[in-house]
Write a structure and sequence with these properties.
This protein has helices spanning about 10-15, 20-55, 60-85, 90-110, 120-145, 150-180, 185-210, 230-240, 245-275, 280-335, 335-360, 370, 375-400, 405-435. By secondary structure, it is mainly α.
């Protein structure tokens, strides 16, 4: 553990600047490297996935989202079994290494079968990246909320989110620069290397995180609460249904996921008409991701921590649905590429800078078992259920032949309900944090 006299003046100034205590420095640094490398890998993959969505056609997207949900359902059983039986470090390592092996298989497949224009392989890649994103990031945050309590979360989650943003900037910036010069398989291999860095960092974070007083669990398999023989997935569902608070978080995730999917479909249609070549679309998506993450980083370094600490979780959760109401209205009036880019950049920047860290703070006041069962259920399956609602809602509205107005009204009504729920969730989190036993934050 570091002490004040063992740190350099520069480190002491950094600790005061970001309100970090000496014993928190090592876990935060390893957490930084962990999420930086993971998000850098994902943002190399994301523009490629989004290009696939434009090549496959908007009519195929609902079926792809359904395939993503089915895949996640099939993976729940082995995922939960491994999380029960393996020590935390080994579980994270095995999960990410399996992802790296699959990614190498895609690299080989794209090298042999015509790249992204092989629609069967491209669609499989779309499904895999969508699953990888949710599981990989959920595992990171499950570890983080197990190490840092609510008080530490309010000070440090914004800092960790900034590392995620830097990783996203690195991945999207690299893809923007080299997408026209490097083949898709080479980009995938770069992502594999970054996943290896995240595995190493996760191990170090898990070990040094035990020094914090909040983390009382050793690196052992996660205990399953009594459930009469229920599988971990059913336990997570039961925990969620039994808790109005967790159901509220489910609602928040559903509102976000449904509106994101509705926006994603509009994006696919607009970009398909704006660019004719696959590499042009990949570069476009990478540039948009880069702009989003630069804006996110500026917000995280200047405003995120202050807003969350001073105004509370309720305000930081509510800003995203309020911006969504305005943005969907704007896009409905003027459905152009420039409006799409502006709305997408602002919406996703607010999500990453404020809504995502605030959403994770919601989980700091629930028992440990709920962090590893209910949280994973909410972050993965509930999220993808929202995709289904959004995807098939878009399809149904499009069949009317006058999609613009109904779609705009639907999106704005959903965002209004989302805003009301955000206020209630923020107040509930504050109440639960005030009534936690001081000796046992779990």
């Amino acid at each position: 553990m570091m002490t004040d006299h063992s740190t350099s003046p520069l480190l002491r100034r950094f600790q005061r600047l970001v309100s970090i205590k000496p014993e928190e420095l090592a876990p935060v640094c390893w957490g930084w490297l962990y999420i930086f490398s993971l998000l850098c890998a994902y943002y190399i993959l994301r523009p490629i996935r989004d290009t696939v969505s434009t090549l496959t056609g908007a009519h195929s997207l609902p079926w792809l989202f359904t395939a993503v949900l089915i895949t996640m359902l099939l993976l729940q059983w082995p995922y939960n079994k491994l999380s029960q039986r393996l020590p935390r470090e080994r579980f994270i390592s095995y999960s990410y290494q399996a992802c790296a092996v699959i990614l190498c298989g895609f690299a080989l497949g794209f090298a042999r079968h015509g790249g992204l224009y092989d629609l069967f392989l491209g669609r499989a890649f779309f499904i895999w990246v969508s699953v990888f994103n949710l599981f990989a990031v959920s595992v990171f945050w499950a570890l983080i909320v197990d190490i840092f309590d609510s008080e530490r979360g309010k000070r440090l989650f914004g800092l960790l989110a900034a590392a995620a943003t830097l990783g996203a900037i690195g991945g999207s910036g690299l893809t923007s620069l080299v997408a026209d010069h490097l083949s898709t398989p080479v980009l995938l291999i770069i992502a594999v290397v970054l996943i290896q860095v995240s595995v190493f960092s996760a191990k170090r974070l898990s070990r040094c995180g035990r020094q914090l007083s909040h983390s009382k669990t050793e690196d052992k398999p996660h205990e399953t609460p009594a459930g009469g023989g229920l599988t971990p997935l059913l336990i997570g569902i039961r925990q969620t249904i039994a808790s109005p608070y967790l159901l509220g978080i489910c609602g928040y995730i559903l509102f976000y996921s449904v509106t994101s999917t509705l926006l994603y479909f509009q994006q696919a249609a607009i970009v398909q008409h704006a660019f004719s070549q696959a590499d042009q679309r990949t570069t476009f998506f990478a540039n948009v991701d880069l702009a989003i993450n630069v804006l996110t980083l500026i917000c995280q370094l200047t405003a995120s921590g202050k807003i969350i600490s001073r105004w509370g979780v309720a305000v930081s959760l509510t800003l995203l649905p309020l911006v969504s109401i305005l943005g969907f209205g704007w896009l409905g009036v003027a459905p152009s590429l420039s409006v799409l880019v502006g709305f997408t950049i602002v919406r996703r920047a607010i999500n990453f800078a404020l809504a995502r860290p605030s959403r994770e703070i919601l989980f700091t006041v629930v028992p440990t078992s709920e962090k590893y069962h209910a949280k994973v259920f909410i972050d993965t399956l509930v999220y993808r259920m929202g995709d289904q609602v959004g995807a098939w809602s878009y399809q149904a509205v499009s069949l009317l032949g006058v999609a613009a107005l109904p779609l705009t009204l639907l999106s704005m009504i959903l965002a209004a309900g989302w805003a009301g729920l955000s206020v209630a969730l923020g107040r509930a989190q504050r109440h639960k944090a005030q009534h936690l036993p001081p000796s046992s934050k779990d």
